[in-house]
Amino acid sequence: MAENEPGQPPVSDDGTAPSYDLPAPASALAIGAHPDDVEFGCGGVLAKWAAAGCVIHHLVCTDGSKGTWDVNADLPSLIAQRRREQREAARRLGGERAGEVRFLDRVDGELDSDLATRSEVARVIRELRPEIVLGHDPWKRYRLHPDHRHAGFLACDGIVAARDPHFFPEHELQHHRPSMLLLWEADAPDHVEDVSAVVDRKLDALEAHESQFESTMKAVDDDELEAFRARVRQRLADLGRPHGLAAAEVFKLVDRL
Ligand SMILES: [Zn+2]
Description:
Layout: E1 19-20, E2 27-32, H1 37-51, E3 55-62, H2 75-94, E4 98-106, H3 115-128, E5 132-136, H4 146-163, E6 180-184, E7 191-194, H5 199-206, H6 222-240, E8 248-254
Parallel strand pairs: 1-7, 2-3, 2-5, 3-4, 5-6
Antiparallel strand pairs: 6-8, 7-8
Helix pairs in contact: 1-2, 1-5, 2-5, 3-4
The structure holds zinc ion.
Residues 1-2, 33-34, 37, 148 line the site of zinc ion.
């Protein structure tokens, strides 16, 4: 589920100059709380990088089992559907450069950034060895959903554990230091990625999450689906406009890892 779908503030409210358009890395790992969070948060930049040869990996922390308004939903089949949808979304974003889609399978709504879960995230980082990691900004003010907070802390804390050789030696894996971390839904965004050429690909990937049409996208018929597309396009356009871009995704860039 996506929090704050509309209305992210433009970059550089504080007057500092943002950075723009990183070179496409060799590999990237996006860590989301729920199936669909990665597509909302950074689907554009992942699609852009994949087209430039970057392998894109997903790590989804929860099983998405709260993602329905149907009180009689068959939850095991919802969980299975959401895994299929996430794999399809990753394929749509990455094409031939789609990498792995990993699931931590925590219960939706009950994610914790405890030591055991941090170890699992660090293990995935050490196994996949991404050049750039992307995740939720855990310091986003007034963020209500606990899974988004915890997933953000897991991305940050997982990097620290993955990069330092004496954390979790039981992994018996080489430590790995990513070069950068990009946080979406950022409290203080300072980095802009031009996604003008990949808006349709981001939408296509979002629409792989068919189980979320009713609850998250408010799109139960063709007209409402078109309205959802228009909202996403508008938001990306609003983020790009202060920077002279037709569409943008914005992030907090952390490059001292
Ligand atoms: Zn979510």
